[in-house]
Amino acid sequence: MPISLDACCIINICATGDAPRILKMAGMKFYLSAACSKESLCLHGRDDKAARIRVPIDLSPLIQSRLIELTDVTPGPETAAFVDFAKQLDDGEAMALALAICRGWTFASDDRKACRIAKEKGVPTIGTPGLLHTYSTSLNLSPPDIARCLKNIEQRATFRPKPTHPLGHWWRANSNQ
């Protein structure tokens, strides 16, 4: 299943500390648009004095090992879709969604507006909770390993799904191990 990643999802995947394992999930191929790859991709960390700092994400090992493939919209319908979505969304989300729609891929994002638009267009969507749930169940991760991944996302990427999210209860139950 090809998946067009929005920047928020790749940031969250990288925050887990298990990005290579997550991106190797059977049956999934991950694509990152040029716009998303150029966004400021950073995690939160601490310096030696415990002050909060921004830590840049280096995607090159994931790209070189072909766990993520960089792609761009092509002239024609993809560019037209990108321009149309860019009126409502940030460039990264707009490009990732245009690629998903035009190429028949799944759209991966945690942005509610982008996911709503994708669903209105009939595009399958998945977010960080779905990706992590799939990852944890497909590899039968231990509760401490699941908790570590989820807590890393919460701390390093400052993401936690709302309690009303379909996997919100799963996330909270598993991040408190």
Write a structural description:
By secondary structure, this protein is an alpha/beta fold. It has 10 helices and 7 strands. It has a 5-stranded parallel beta sheet with strand order 5-2-1-6-7. Strands 3-4 form a two-stranded antiparallel ribbon. Helix 7 links the parallel strand 6 and strand 7. The longest helix has 14 residues. It is globular, with a radius of gyration of 16 Å. The mean pLDDT is 93.
A few lines on this structure:
The chain is of the alpha/beta class. It has helices spanning 7-15, 19-23, 34-38, 60-64, 77-86, 91-103, 112-120, 128-138, 143-156, 168-175, and strands at residues 2-5, 29-33, 42-46, 52-56, 68-71, 106-108, 125-126.
Q: How is the main sheet built?
A: 5 strands, parallel
Sketch the topology as an H/E string, one letter per element. EHHEHEEHEHHEHEHHH
Mean pLDDT: 93
**Spatial arrangement of strands, main beta sheet:** 5-2-1-6-7
Radius of gyration: 16 Å
Helix content range of the residues, please?
40-55%
Shape: globular
**Extended strand count:** 7
Structural class: alpha/beta
Strand share of the residues? 15-25%
Number of helices: 10
Regions with little confidence, pLDDT below 50 for 5+ residues: none
Instruction: Tell me the distance between the termini.
Output: 31 Å
Structural key phrases:
177 residues; alpha/beta; five-stranded parallel sheet; 10 helices; 50% helix; 16% strand
